[in-house]
Design goal:
The chain is an alpha+beta fold. Helix content is 32%, strand content 37%. The protein is built from two helices and five strands.
């Protein structure tokens, strides 16, 4: 599972076997986990994150959307 970036307590990553799905990023903090679609940015699912924290995470993803999309496309290119 390639890590793309760490911002504060958050680790942003994707799984290597997910190339059949649209571009997305997973984010983890301790035992909390969420998945966000990247284009457009939207939450797909979340476990254990509070709503206010998901809002903060979504803003981080928007701010780094191009970087995350580039990492996704580079890793999953055929």
């Amino acid at each position: 599972m390639p890590s793309v970036k760490r911002i504060g307590p958050y680790r942003f990553f994707f799984f290597s076997n997910e190339n059949d799905e649209p571009p997305h990023i997973h984010v983890q903090r301790e035992r909390c986990l969420a998945k966000f679609w990247l284009d457009p940015v939207a939450m797909a699912r979340s476990k254990r994150f509070a709503a206010h924290e998901l809002t903060r995470i979504e803003k981080l993803i928007v701010d780094h959307q191009n970087e995350f999309l580039e990492a996704w496309n580079e890793y999953h290119k055929h």
